[in-house]
Amino acid sequence: MSKKPTTKKTVARKPAKSKKAGKSWKRTDGRTFDELRTLKIESGVLPNADGSAYIEMGRNKIFCGVFGPREMHPKHQAKPNEAVLRCRYHMAPFSVDPRRSPAPSRRDQEISMVMRSALEPAVFLERYPRASIDVYVEVLEADGGTRCASINAAAVALVDAGIPMRDLVAACAVGKIEDKLIVDLGDYEDKKGQSDMPIAYMPKLNKVTLLQMDGTMSTTEAETAINLAIEGCKKVYEVQRDALKKKYSIDQPPEKPVKEFLPEEPEEEPQSEEGRQ
Amino acid sequence: MSANFQDRDLVLPGDILYEGRIRTGENTYRNKDQVYATRLGLVNYSPENVNVVALESVYNPLVGDQVIGEVFDIDLGEWKINIGAQSEAVMGIPDAVDRPFRTEFIMTRVLDVGDTIIAKIVDLDRRRTPILSILGPGLGRVYDGFTIRITPSKIPRLIGKKGSMINMIIKETGCRVVIGQNGRILISGLSREREEMVVKVVNKIEQEAHTSGLTNRTQEFLRQLKERPR
Q1: Cβ within 8 Å, pair B58-A50
Q2: What is the rounded average pLDDT for all residues in chain A?
């Protein structure tokens, strides 16, 4: 079910990198420099959403629900020529160690905006004028790189909702710690590292939709980093594809999300089938 | 000039379906000389075009569709109805009552907020807002049963060829099953067990809509459900 981390997936290493990151060098969690964390994605997990996805990226656990295209409320925010993509990124109070306030913080607002701009180029918004497409992301457990994981989940959920898209969006971060470039940063690497660069990428169209950076990198490092991140995005993309296709594999259809559709049981159970009028 | 997939292969948005000059059908788009998919679905190559039969889609209202919706608001002279489309549907008084309008007419006596209706789309206005009517056989307010939702693109499979699938389900379970093209299905039966049977069958059809030989397998599945001891 879960796609096990392909240990030491052989990706052509460039000489510039191998100088920086020797083969023996391992990260704090035992990964090599270009190895992703365990990645598991499921689609169609929320019965009441039009489309949904659940992602486990390392210890990140994130749910994403997509609603729409539907009527925009408040109506004055609707655009006459295209749909509006609205994203809401939220971290549960219990998702990080000292409990976090559930109120939206400045950081939440930023990530919501960043997600929106990363997903917008992939969605045919012009097909649904005056409508809104709402993407809700709830982080249950955070362990670094939640914005990338959220974008990955949101892309799968958008496809699951049947919203027309140009391509999927896969996201992956690169960073620098101890002067070495690493892919898919965990929480520790994120905090102790020298630099962090999340990238969202449309693999089939070969287009970058998000590029942010914290910290410092030299020009050559940045170039290598972008290529490393794109390699990471391509690995993520394969997992996203598998997640979407799994719902339609005939051999083992995934379990239907549990939902009682039926009305409340009547007070007195009729004796026979004909007994209930 | 080549097709990149077999017929009826599962494709995802962004997959390059065809390279070369060809007409783009449903759920596809062209970028330079390549045709891409826009939705998850089954690819279909025909001599004229390449298209994708979507497995997940949003409801696209068309004139003549029978839909099931819920009244969520009453405005001046019209009911607002949620049919799960990108915009809310409206229904004016002449489309709901077949008698001359009188000033003492009270709209809530006909339909109130929260009522479920079976309606027909009679028109789309300039903003593509669906205009509904409940005048006609089989249409009107629903008094009995409950609704479930499936992906609107799978409704044709639930109906089957000339209604073979849905008629079989109705015959085997004895429930009243009304299908809305917007993916809402109204079920009402004599007993809860039979209603549950319909829910299970509909969910199974939704899961396996992309496979062939579905009607026969569904019939087999229904027989098994009936024989299972409660």
Answers
A1: yes
A2: 86
Q: Domain range spanning residue A195?
A: 24-252
Place of tokens 């997940």: B56
pLDDT at A257: 52
Candidates B17, B18, B38: best to mutate against A (most CBs of A within 10 A) is B38
In a domain, B59, yes or no: no
Give yes or no for residue A3 having a pLDDT over 50.
Answer: no
What local confidence, expressed as pLDDT, does residue A276 receive? 44
Given a contact cutoff of 8 angstroms between Cβ atoms, the answer to whether A186 and A200 are in contact is no
Which chain A residues touch B86 with a CB distance below 8 Å? Answer: 68-71, 83, 128, 130-131
* Distance (Å) of CA B181 to CA A65, A229, B70, B79, B184: 24, 44, 14, 20, 7
A77/chain B closest Cα distance in angstroms? 15
Q: Which residues pair with A138 in a beta bridge?
A: A63, A90
Domain range holding B156?
146-227
B193: nearest CA partner in chain A: A273
pLDDT for res A15: 44
B14 closest CB neighbour out of A166, A270, A276: A166
State the CATH number of the domain containing residue B151.
3.30.1370.10
Chain B neighbours among A 41-60 (CB < 8 Å)?
50-51
Within-domain flag for A19: no
User: Are B74 and B43 members of one domain?
Assistant: no
- Residue B61 in any domain: the answer is no
Contact B194 A274 (CB under 8 A): no
Tell me, yes or no, whether B34 lies in a domain.
Answer: yes
Q: List Cα–Cα distances, B182 to A154, B53, B68, B95, B179, in angstroms.
A: 24, 16, 7, 20, 8
Q: Which of B146, B194, B203 sits opposite A256 (nearest CB)?
A: B203
B133 and B154 both lie in a single domain: no
- pLDDT single digits (tens) A177-233: 999 999 999 999 999 999 999 999 999 999 999 999 999 999 999 999 999 999 999
CATH number reported for the structural domain that contains residue B9 in this entry? 2.40.50.100
Instruction: Note whether residue A217 is domain-resident.
Output: yes
Q: Which of B34, B54, B5, B27 is nearest to A204 (CA)?
A: B34
What's the CA gap between A191 and B76, in Å, rounded? 58
Q: Does A259 touch chain B (CB under 8 A)?
A: no
Six-digit token pair at A148? 């990338």
Instruction: Evaluate whether residue A90 is within a structural domain.
Output: yes
CATH of the domain at A42: 3.30.230.70
Instruction: Report if residue B208 sits inside a domain.
Output: yes
pTM as predicted: 0.86
- Give contacts of B148 with chain A, Cβ < 8 Å: 261
Which of B141, B158, B185 represents a domain boundary (last residue)? B141
Pick from B76, B57, B64: nearest CA to B124:
B64
Specify if A260 maps to a domain. no
- Residue of chain A with shortest Cα separation from B128: A129
Chains A and B: how many Cβ contacts under 8 Å?
99
